[in-house]
Amino acid sequence: MSLHELLISPFADYGFMRRALVATLALGLGAAPIGVLLMLRRMSLVGDAMSHAVLPGAALGFMFAGGLSLLWMGLGALIAGLLVAVLSGVISRTTVLKEDASFASFYLVSLALGVLLISLRGSNIDLLHVLFGTILAIDSQALCLIAGITSLTLLVLAVVYRPLVMECFDPGFLRAVGGRGPWYHLLFLLLVVVLNLVAGFQTLGTLMAVGMMMLPAVIAQLWARTLGSMLLIATLSAVLSGYLGLLLSYHLNLASGPCIILTAALLYGLSLLLAPAGALRRFFPLPHLRN
Amino acid sequence: MSALVLDDITVAYQRHPAVHHISGEFASGSLTAIAGPNGAGKSTLLKAIMGEVPLASGRIRYGQYQQRDIGYLPQAAAIDRQFPLTVADTVIMGAWRTLGVHRAVTQDVAAQARNALQAVGLAGFEQRPIGSLSAGQFQRVLFARLLLQDAPIVVLDEPFTAIDSRTTHDLLQVILSWHQQGRTVIAVLHDFEQVRQHFPSTLLLAREIIGWGDTSAVMSRDNLTRAKAMAEAWDEGADVCQPEVSA
C-alpha cells in the first residue's frame, strides 16, 4: 500500500469520508479551546455531565421528527442543554449544593429520561445512533451546522477571551473590578459548551462528544506552559486525532467515532510518558541550570 | 470625610451572625488594621464590603466612590497558582478599567506593569510563568496588580500570611506608600505587633466591635482578652436577635 493510498485516497475517493473529515476538523477547532477553558476552570467533568444532559432533548427531537433528523435532534439537544445549564446555575446559587453536584443530579435524570423516551418509539439501532453518532452519514446540512457552530464559537471566544480567562483564573478579582464575570461564564457555558456538544453529538454521539473537548485539553496541559500554546496544542491534537482516527476506522473497518476518541487517547498516553510534565521525565532528569 | 461607612451591618451563616451590628466609618485616607481572633468575622467583613456575601441587615455606603473603585486582595489560597499565565499577564489584569473586554494592551500599560513589578522587587520577571513563583513572589505579583489598579480604596485580606519576613517588610512599605499618597487602606492582620507599629487605626473585631479607633487605645490587654472570649462563644440555642427600639 502506497503512502497516498494510506493517507489520502480514502478521502479523495469517497464523499462520505471527505464530509466526515471536514466535520471532525471543524469539531476539533471549536471543541479543543473550550476543553482547555473548562479544564482550567476545574470543570472537566461538567462537559461530560452536559453531554448526557442533552440526551432527552435529542430524544424529543427524534420523536417529533419521527426518525433520525439531525436538525430536530440537534435543536432538542440544544434546548435540553441550555435548560440543565441554567437550572444547575440557579440551584448552585440559591441552595447549598455546589455547581458540580447540581450538574450531576440533572444529568442522571436527563440520561434516564432520554433513554426512556427513545426506547418508547425507536429501535435499539436508533439508540446506538444517538449514543455514538453518525459521523459517516453526515449530510451537507449537518456539515453546515457544525461549521457554523465552530465559527460562532471561535468568534465568541475571541471577543470575550480576556474576561473569560480572568474569570477562570481569579473570579473574585473580576467581580471586584466590576467585570460582570458570571455573565461571561454563563455565556461560555450556554452558548459555547452546549452548542459544541450539539455539534459533537451529531458526529460522535452524546457519550463520546466530550472526548473531543477534554482529551486534547489534558494532552495540551502536559506539554504547554502558557495559555496560548496550550490552546494551540489542544487544537492540533484534536485535528490530528480526527484525521488519524478516520483513517484507522477506514482501513481497519472499525466504528469511526470510537476510533477518533481512541486516537486522542493514544496521543494522551504518549504525552503522559513523553511530555515535559509526563512520567518518563522522572527517570531521565536533565541536568539543572546554573541560574 | 468618610471613604466607607458601615451602617449597622450583620452577615450571618445559617442564621448565626459572623459579624453582628457593625457600625462605623473608615475616614478617607486612613490606614486601618482589622484585628481579632480566629473566627472573629474579619474576612467576612471584607467580603461584605466587596459584595461577595449578602448582608442579613444594614447597609454599606461607599461615599464618593463605588464598590468597583476598591482594590481587593483576597486570601492567597483563593487563587489557582498553577494557571498557565505569565507574571506580566497577571499584573496587566489590574488595568481592566482602562482595557475593558477587548482594547489592546498599549505600550503605556505595559510600561506601567513593568514599573509596578519593579516597585514590588520583581523587575525582569515579566515573562515568568506564575506557577514557577514562590508564595512570597506571587504575593508581590498580586500587589503589583493592585498598583496598576490605582484604586483610591485598597482592601487586603491577610496579605502577609505564609510570607517570609523580607517580603512582608517590602510589601508593608508599599502599603505605607499608599497611605502617604492619601489612599484609604484597610487590612486584615494577625500580627498584633505589626498592627501596633504601622497602623494608626484599628478595628478590633470579635463578631461585634470590641474597639474601633486609635490603635494604642483599641489594642489594650482588656480589649484583646474580651475579643478572645467573645469569638469563642457559640450558642446553638441562641435567641432571635431583636433590634432595640429607641424611645
UniProtKB/TrEMBL annotation, chain A:
Presence of the UniProt keyword Transmembrane in the record: yes
Name under which the protein is recorded: Zinc ABC transporter permease
Cited InterPro entries: ABC_BtuC-like (IPR037294), ABC_TroCD (IPR001626)
Gene3D superfamilies assigned: ABC transporter involved in vitamin B12 uptake, BtuC (1.10.3470.10)
Lineage of the organism: Bacteria, Pseudomonadati, Pseudomonadota, Gammaproteobacteria, Oceanospirillales
PANTHER family according to UniProt: ABC-TRANSPORTER METAL-BINDING PROTEIN, IRON TRANSPORT SYSTEM MEMBRANE PROTEIN HI_0360-RELATED
Record organism: Pokkaliibacter plantistimulans
Family, similarity comment: Belongs to the ABC-3 integral membrane protein family.
Transmembrane segments: 20-38, 45-64, 70-91, 103-120, 140-161, 182-201, 231-248, 260-280
Main location class: membrane
Pfam family, one: ABC-3
Subcellular location: Cell membrane; Membrane
Topology in membrane: Multi-pass membrane protein
Annotated coiled-coil segments of the chain: none
Keywords: Membrane, Transmembrane, Transmembrane helix, Transport
Automatic annotation (TrEMBL), chain B:
Top-level division of the source organism's lineage: Bacteria
Family from the record: Belongs to the ABC transporter superfamily.
Name of the protein: ABC transporter
UniProt domain ABC transporter: residue ranges: 4-231
UniProt-listed PANTHER family: IRON TRANSPORT SYSTEM ATP-BINDING PROTEIN HI_0361-RELATED (PTHR42734:SF5), METAL TRANSPORT SYSTEM ATP-BINDING PROTEIN TM_0124-RELATED (PTHR42734)
SUPFAM superfamilies xref list: P-loop containing nucleoside triphosphate hydrolases
Keyword ATP-binding included in the entry's annotation: yes
Keyword Magnesium assigned: no
Keywords: ATP-binding, Nucleotide-binding, Transport
